[in-house]
Specification:
By secondary structure, the chain is α+β, with helices and mostly antiparallel strands. The chain has a domain of 56 residues. Helix content is 59%, strand content 21%. Strand 2 and strand 3 form a beta hairpin.
Length: 111
């Protein structure tokens, strides 16, 4: 009788030990996958986003590539500027700093 109880206890301990080990392995693999996906997403974002600087002179907005300061587009309104950029660079998204957007009046400073 004692042997049966000992085997049952041993079986329960092995079951839970195996369960915990399986959970740890699954967590490690999931973390590796998430890290790989995160790196891939960051690479794709870097490829598809152009960092820009917007300048406003005499009622016209001018957009320059922040990396090499090359001219990209111009427009008299924000909408015209966005349409021009979208037509010239259809596969890209654009990112200007918050300070630059405040400077040209595209966003209001929130308190």
């Amino acid at each position: 009788m004692v042997e049966i109880i000992a085997v049952a206890v041993y079986g329960v301990i092995c079951f839970f030990g195996g369960w915990v080990a399986r959970e740890r392995v699954a967590e490690q693999r999931l973390n590796q996958i998430m890290e790989h996906v995160s790196e891939h997403v960051q690479d794709e974002v870097k490829k598809s986003v152009l960092h820009i600087k917007i300048e406003h002179h005499n009622g016209m907005y001018y957009v320059y590539n922040l990396k090499d300061h090359s001219f990209m587009a111009q427009g008299s309104t924000r909408e015209e500027l966005e349409k021009s950029l979208a037509s010239k660079y259809p596969e890209k998204s654009f990112a200007a700093t918050h300070e630059n957007l405040l400077e040209v009046g595209f966003v209001n400073e929130s308190v």
